[in-house]
Amino acid sequence: MVFSIKRRQQDIKALKEETLDVLIIGGGITGAGTALQAAASSLKTGLVEMQDFAEGTSSRSTKLVHGGLRYLKNFDVEVVADTVQERAVVQGIAPHIPKADPMILPVYDEPGSTFSMFSLKVAMDLYDRLANVTGTKYENYTLSKDEVLEREPQLKSEGLQGAGVYLDYRNNDARLVIENIKRAAEDGGHMVSRTKVVGILHDENDKVCGATVEDLLTGETYDIKARIVLNTTGPWSDTIRQMDAKSDAAPQMRPTKGVHLVVDREKLQVPQPTYFDTGKNDGRMVFVIPREEKTYFGTTDTDYKGDFSHPKVEQEDVDYLLEVVNNRYPSAGITINDIESSWAGLRPLISTNGGSDYNGGNSQPITDESFDNVISTIEKYQQGEVDRITVEDALKDIQTSNSESEANPSAISRGSALDIDEDGLITIAGGKITDYRKMALGAMRTVVEILKNDFNKTYELIDSSKYPVSGGDINAQEVEEETEKLSQMGVEKGLSQSEALYLANLYGSNAPKVFALLDEVEQIEGLTLADSLSLHYAMEEEMALTPNDFLIRRTNHMLFMRDTLDGIIEPVIAEMARYYDWTDEAKANYTKQLETAIAESDLKELKGE
Questions:
Q1: In terms of residue numbers, what domain contains 31?
Q2: Which pLDDT tens digit goes with each residue over 355-402?
Q3: DSSP label at residue 22
Q4: pLDDT score at 382
Q5: 493 and 594 share a domain?
Q6: Torsions phi, psi of 552, nearest 5?
Q7: Is residue 517 in some structural domain?
Q8: 3-state secondary structure of 195
Q9: By C-alpha distance, which of 273, 69, 70 is closest to 152?
Q10: Torsion sign over Cα 534, 535, 537, 541
């Protein structure tokens, strides 16, 4: 399959001429996952994204596929069960992307602590059973205070009680999106980035029948006809619904901004992902995660009312995270000048979901009194002082406290919602990356039902829990072994071991296609052989249309390889300009876009540079 600018032209022609079964607006993870299921199920599928795929929100997460351990403090068993089970599904269909990376959770004796050592162990044991890892190498365990400090000597010792270690997964969010997009395109879907919806079309019965879009590369405006239009635009969901003149849907989104900061690993040394209370008694927790040769930490969670396309890291975000991290790692002494890169993203939270969980159930926080009663009862049960019925009664008597307040954006639900407006526009919003396939499945069941009832068109959905994304055709139970085998193919073609392994990890079962480019692509002056191959593959097979697409979302170069970024900017731009035959003006514009993105990532304005 070729997923290049030539394919884009063919897809635009098809979008103009065909009547689609479903037009998906939004190329983040939810739209991408829905497009994969639709195209694989033989629906005539189109997707338009006004930016690059994943650019809006789905490349700006904490880059984990995690299971929500902290929700077990509220005994949200159903939420956590759904999440860890779905995480296992995602790992099965995209085994080259989520990678097991056990998390350490230090416990401090301080006001507002999420866990005590006892409650953490109870939660982790239940978590393991839900995740089906009891008795495996990923089973949880606890560490004493001394063992924690031996593992993380920079960690604050005062008040430290110990820690728990449990299974979690690192993620490459933007890669997960593009691999879904590529599979949908391979199955016949018309996936077009940099195409903005400017109007919703209606038929003679005032029912939605497509959209008017603008090609942001050429300025051309055209109509796309579709039997069903699905809005998967995340924070922009209300914007699309309000664009629909035949609908008066009330706004439902309350986006919050999350910020992450990156420093050199030598500055903040953590051997594995670490997750802890902020120490500010504000109900929040923060991640500190090693990646490549860097360490990143976040996230903030603040209401956001600015430009959705351009959330920025602000001084108060930096101050908050530095205060939290320097409190937990006192010897690190991190300042703003130590920050090498950063990113800010929006969470598409739904304000009207009240206390609902990721998948629609009730998950309001329980009161401290109820929580203490449950823990005390469990402790007595383990000591043989009370029977099981007493524990069950304590769980039944849990009282919730409504903290879903205007003042607490962190408490707003991460739940998803699927709405059908009066004129037929379908919107799916909210949720989180871990649940993307499940959200897409819910949307597709609705789409298929409407196609059958209203258009007499019958489709049978594929089993998306077993349908791999592009690059995912490897054994999920033997990822390390298969990745090693793939890398050896690269070594045999002339790559170094480290380069071949890097590419095999990045592209999974597509790695042989990347290695095959060695037969036709010469090493680009100023780039490594691996980067030369990666760049050409991104342009020919992954619709990377700008330097930002390649350096931020097809790879993580800007975020986690900042040391070598400056040296490759010029050769990357020069090769893309040659490949795409850019005018001098276009080349200057793309160069300026990249310089702006780097300056923002580097926090140059905040640093006074």
A1: 5-58+174-252+416-455
A2: 333 222 334 455 667 777 777 887 787 788 887 667 766 765 665 443
A3: E
A4: 78
A5: yes
A6: -105, -45
A7: yes
A8: strand
A9: 273
A10: positive
